[in-house]
Each structure stands twice: as C-alpha cells, then as structure tokens.
From TrEMBL:
This is Fur-regulated basic protein FbpA. It comes from Paenibacillus oenotherae. It comes from the Bacteria.
Amino acid sequence: MTYIEMMRRRNEILKRNIGSMILKSNKQGLSGQESSFYKNMIKELHQGESEINAYRNQS
C-alpha cells in the first residue's frame, strides 16, 4: 500500500467518523471533549486532502 493509498483510506474513515459525529450532534449535542475531537478530525481530513492534492499536482 502506497502512502497516497493510505491517506485516501484514512480520509474515508475520517469522513465516516465525522458523519457519525454530525448525526450525534444533531440528535443530542456533543460534549466539550467530543466537540474538540470533532474539530480535530476535520483538521486532519483537510490536511489529508491537501496532501493528496499536492501529490496529484506533482504527478
């Protein structure tokens, strides 16, 4: 598995987890710790997408 394949897989997992957090937020709200974790997942997803796009632009 290449680094880019790993990043794509990681982003898929992050998207799934973010979707779950959004559903939970809409139903009952998030605690402070969950909210912080959610924001961190968003940052990681954006960073991963940025790295993948940078790799595409190089190729």
